[in-house]
Amino acid sequence: MIPKVHAFFDDATNTISYVVRDPAGSACAVIDSVLDFDYASGRTDTRSADAVIAFVRDNGLKVEWLLETHVHADHLSAAPYLQREIGGRIGIGDRITVVQDTFGKVFNEGTEFRRDGSQFDRLFVEGDSLHIGQLRGDVLHTPGHTPACLTYVIGDAAFVGDTLFMPDFGTARCDFPGGSSGTMFASIQKILALPDATRIFVGHDYKAPGRDEYAWETTVGEQKARNIHVGGGTSAEDFVKMRDARDATLGMPKLIIPSLQVNMRAGQMPPEDENGDVFLKVPVNKL
Questions:
Q1: Total domain count, the chain
Q2: Quick one: average pLDDT of 150-154?
């Protein structure tokens, strides 16, 4: 089946969220939602999530899944807010436990922070399937950017998160804790083994030099032919050399510190203190 896909672009973080619809009914899923966050003031806002909510309600849709492709380091997830407003089960890859263990230590979360993925409603493994009405979705484990990255193949569409970008921009970084350029190359080959006509929907776009408009939809065939990092038969050795050198020049995403603390909790804020206030930690010389 061919799902209907509606994209929502967040200018502040260059993130694309998606509503994926069963063409034969009202069921849908939301992929990689965004909770707006102003780091300077520490204030959250729901305008991006509210746009998704309005679309769902205006079209009479029923949300069955709130899917995360990975623990994002560049934006906060709005999944709990969406769940309260429009329902749906929150899902992510089962290797979230690896991410929770790693960053539980970085942020000195203590034993009260559960590192078993129980904050999520469903932990997916390679080969799992899910249904959105009559649409079937299959799960590919595609680590490299992070250990818990997934690609959701729903009908003729693959939602790849941060593994692949548009062909003229290439691939995602692999230098976060638990990341690996060699693993990333193997994961990309798994995606490129899908039929050439498979639509690929990316998690971010930054407008490659010479391109005037943001874009987020391509195909497997286009990626194989034109991706500047892996297209045209690039070898694993050449990719790893390029990716590692490029990553060494990159700074940390501006929202990595709040994003990781929130997203490893399935979008929930850290527990309130005795006064009902919420605080995020800033680890010094850790990242």
A1: 1
A2: 98
